[in-house]
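Input/output pair, single chain:
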Amino acid sequence: MVQVLSGIAYDCDVLVVGGGIVGLSTAYAITRSAPGTRVVVLEKEAGPARHQTGRNSGVIHSGIYYRPGSLKARYAVRGAAEMVKFCAEYGIAHAVTGKLIVATERSELPRLHGLVQRGRENGIPVRELGAAQIAEYEPEVEGLAAIHVGTTGVCDFAGVARQLAEASGAEIRYGAEVRRIDRRPELGVAVLTGAGDVVRARVLVNCAGLHCDEVARLTGDDPEMRIVPFRGEYYTLARPELVRGLVYPVPDPAFPFLGVHLTRGIDGSVHIGPNAVPALAREGYGWGVVRPRELGATLAWPGSWHIARRHWRYGAGELRRSVSRGAFTTAVRRLLPAVMADDLVPSAAGVRAQAVLRDGTLVDDFLIREGARAVHVLNAPSPAATASLPIGREVARRALEALRAV
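Output:
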């Protein structure tokens, strides 16, 4: 139904750009919080969850890594419990497996202890393990010490996204790529899609993931950041019996990446990865995918060069592991000595939408900003899938406030 108000024919009250798990959670939260609100979701792909949502490791994160009080910490801890409940309610495949975080070098022990403290501050139960106790959980894993985090799990996030789409009651339009946006604060927002359709809304919500900064600029808002895409490459373990559950290294606090880890998925297969290398396109899932315009925009952003200068040693190691299975195997063997190069079977890659500021700062927390008749989700990489239900409620709250104000 088209609503006519002040001479304008509105197709919906809220228009959500992006049919990943955050966009669909937002649509779900809006219709749950304000029944009768008309929501349309535009997704450029033929179905939901085709990018970050459907190409991650499927881990329900506990929230142990994130700074106490941050959105990531609050939403991941809350979101993990809610995600398990949501999956159980709708019959979506999931399991609460727990995970090990393992220190393999003495220099990592202070950071491991710091994670214990951070976990306790975030209200997460953590068990500290000595070297001999690691085998209780993972007989083939070796390390100097470890911690066990019982609230971590795995699930089918693409299945969650499909269920959110169905349960939201929103109109989901697939194959609807946003080409132009005309935002007039006194009237509303009109969006032109690649199919030539015009969708008019009172408020726009930008959950475009890898393209969120571009959508913000189309709206007329300066996001003051750019998405710099990092590809994460995975392998499948040919001998899945080597790994019982989830095994992670101690992360480097200088980076938002968790390092190469071992994940037994809901289907019983074990994925190893990801690394983190620059992608040559926003959806650059392989070295052969190059989009000159997108690559040029990344190279033109000063923050990209600041990252390169600041972290070139780290980047060089990631690149070496990308082009050499032997180097990747060496990294894995720090945790799993029994693994051999032949055990690693290439698997589908993902791309992380990492927000980078002009000075090269990697935005560490979720980032949500508002403009006239618009709400922009500008940084929502991992653990956004875990935290998608509370993120969706927060974005919905802001969208509904904007709706009431017009």
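The CA atoms of residues 197 and 331 lie 49 Å apart. The radius of gyration is 21 Å.
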